[in-house]
Fold these 2 entries.
Entry 1:
Amino acid sequence: MKSSRVIAIVLGLVVAGCASARRSEPIAGPLPEVSREVESGRLLFQRNCNACHVHGEAGLGPAINDKPLPSFMIRMQVRNGLGAMPSFPEKDLSAEDLDRIVAYLETLRDHG
Amino acid sequence: MLHPPSRRARGLGTALLIAASLPAAGCFSLRPSQGGGETTLEGDPPIGPDAIALPDGYRIDRIASDLTFPTAIVFDDAGTAYVIESGYSYGEVWTVPRLLRLEEDGSLAEVARGGDNGPWTGATWGNGHFYVAEGGRKQGGKILRISRDGKMEALVVGIPSKGDHAVNGPVLGADGFLYFTVGTATNSGVVGADNVAFGWVDDDPDFHDVPCEDLILNGVNFITPNPLAADKAEVETGAFVPFGTRTEKGQKIPGAVPCSGSVLKMKPEPGAPVELVAWGFRNPFGIAFAPDGKLFVTDNAYDDRGTRPVYGAGDLLWAVRPGTWYGWPDFHGARMLDYGDYYDPPGRNAPEMLLAAHPNVPPEPTAILAVHSSTNGFDFSTNEEFGFVGQAFLAQFGDMAPAVGKVLAPVGYKVVRMDLETGLSEDFAVNRGETNGPASWLRVPGLERPVEARFDREGKALYVVDFGVLLQKEEKSLPQPGTGCVWRITRDPRALPGPLALSPRGVAP
């Protein structure tokens, strides 16, 4: 991969991060009908992530619903933590549950 | 044929991973705090509902304004609304606590006024009287009984409520008892420099948390400068003791009732004994019975401040089980504060356990809400005409960053609804804008700091008490008298979805 393409991708991600992250129901409308996996991910997100990223918006932590991060990077960050974010070990959040959270986050990203 | 990636390609991949993670990681330590109070007020605050978003089919109206630090609304048997003005705000601004009748034309008539022992934090109606929680910043907390013509007497006095948090509530139970709550004196059990800075130690050098039952300490002590000493010499302070007092491993702290961080109850008569319901809360500000009779409280969780800071602890909604300890100062929900790195403040170690043994393992909370959202007064929908029957509607006062810790964007400043069966919460009334925030931050007319959400007697309208503007200049709170108001949210078939949804949904047609 050429350096220019890498830079372009990174810049794209950063610019994408500037879009509005407002996703709550009164502003973006209710979530459309979703799969059971996404619905389950929504519950898991609420329990594990929402306190710092309400509806994926910024709060204690940064917004995470407006950035097209690949799912493997989301998993990596959740498992390892980064900066002020804690790490979520598998005993607290199984691989299957993490998949569900990622599926919900991707749905949230497209909503709004 | 596949080839292993070259070193250069691997390096680029790693750089990409790190760089692409930065927008999500947000470089927390490098970014300034962006709390909703960290703004300035230029001219008068914007007034009106124009920026408030609601679900389709609802409308919001501002029905009373120019209030100073309002904290609660209560309805008598006839359905007449009364508003409480606190008489005190963080920032050490003292006014007069008042009970005001809200007339139909939006004017206010004074029913009763208190002294200098605010804040008045909540009220309920029953047995032909108002019952008011007097926070007790100067004399300790009280529960007051006020007649319709303004005669006032204390049912109980001397509740330990000096320090960070006050006496809150009350609500009347079906059993005839009056239930109320007491917040803790400190953030996480230790009187520290933060409490000195707030002025609490100057006011009462002996103030500290009082447990409801005997506790045995681990003997953890914290060394801090003593701002009160001329030479700023360091002092050691342990848990549940006054500032500058050292504790030992195995030391017993005697319990007593009334106590800090508790839900208490009493018969609504002067001098009736106060009984313990549950304890181990931090600041159980909101208290309400669900339609099925279960008691719930909202609990403002730990801050990232003071001698023993705790990071990332979301506010909690608890179902209250009598006789249970709810974890403060060593747990958040059912999780110990030294578990993993969940509660480590950036660049610091996990909080040390203060107690040698815990009365019980705390139950799981009903819900975890946003960190620093200050989720306060709440009520349950009971009327199909309003909708969302059985769900809780919770007022979120909003963060007080940076005094409570840094945030990357304003948190709270809205009303959320909570499905207790699933634990899912959703915004119900929230300001529009590129980010969340109070009206003064967004510079739009809308919600500022909702502190109470309560339905009228019929359950047809949700009233939201808005404390008004409270700015934060670094650690100092700057409340703005006269900026509080009351909102009323109703179902309005005229506020239909469709092309009109392009207009602000909060505006009355």
Entry 2:
Amino acid sequence: MGLAKRIIPCLDVDAGRVVKGVNFIGIRDAGDPVEIAQRYNLQGADEITFLDITASHEDRDTTVGMVERIAGEVFIPLTVGGGIRTCDDIRTMLNAGADKISINTAAVTNPDFVYEALERFGSQCIVVAIDAKKVSGEGEAPRWEIFTHGGRRATGIDAVEWAKTMVDYGAGELLLTSMDRDGTKTGFDLGVTHAISEAVSVPVIASGGVGNLDHLVDGILEGGADAVLAASIFHFGEYTIPEAKRYMASKGIEMRL
Amino acid sequence: MTIAVIDYGMGNLHSVAKALEHVTHENVIVTRDPRCIRGATRLVLPGQGAIRDCIGELERTDLRGLVQELLTRQAKPLLGICVGQQMLMDHSEENGGIDCLGFLPGVVRRFPADMRDEHGARLKVPHMGWNVVQQHHPHPLWAGIDHEEHFYFVHSYYVVANDDNNVLGTTDYCGVTAHVAIGREATFAVQFHPEKSSRAGLKLLENFVQWSP
């Protein structure tokens, strides 16, 4: 028995509702964030990630209220991300009850901010989110680049090098999303997951592309991830968390059952 | 009846306070006022981030002497969490070596780098996530909690206590046995985060609130 691999259901929240995925046509409403967080907690989720995909300022206050309500009832780690750009944003979310803060676009556009956040709040509470996309062609050595703005904007930054830099800055954990796979249900990009997991000393959460339970297993055993994040397979009742955990345990993965 | 969470400026104390409020009707306060800390019936000493910063802030807020005095007197129950556990030892390897509060004999060490699991994957530091706690000695705070229950951890340094009688729980990681629950008399301290450890963690907090050592 040892450190368990983690299953992290992800709530993409827009205007106070959990929606399926980001940037998809025909967004499906999955329900109230507080109710869904409670359900996953009861099912034995290892953590919960709350991604605020809201664009408007007014809805930000709703988000803070949601985080407060979840944190008052769900006593497992809660990561909050989406639009975090300043140390004040971080302080607001921590005060609302978040345990970890995920920084994405702001890390790329302003790496000094990551450094400042790590200095102020400590590496245990900053998760750097990396959105990677494969840029190498057929037959070339595999190469992934960082994309921002929901995968629409290329940066020219090598994903593995960026991951190493963020860990050198002091990031305590990385949330790696494959932009090629996100929403496709074809499984994680195991190449980039493995490359980054091997390159850094801190835990890596694999995200983007989960469509079935074998994908979760592959993320751990082939990708070398320490945790797997998924949204829609849990939101719409295709699988429950205990089903996923039992299946992963049956494949020899250490799980908290 | 007041439970004081000692706020010396390090880390997120809301989670601890909220979890305590969930398990008790007693008054829970987050405070750095020495009178409130002296007046409380129970104390929680949290801690997050680097130990040098934690001890530095404890000194800057003039609370080090008070905490040390309360540890010496052992007049009321105290629960240390995370760096709040590590600080109780003599010395920590972190930040190039730093002397701690010296309440229990022992040291704080870093997990070894470049370890691998049985699948050949890198063992990561920080030790982050849910790991099994072996109850090493019986204690009222373990009441109703299974032996080998999972608790939530986030840390790169771990406690090694010299006196086996002070070791109440252990966890194995990176080939080492960390003393993740330690204590004596009215003090109990854990490396893991009970406030984030779901039912088992809440049970431990409930036990703490009801503990009369």
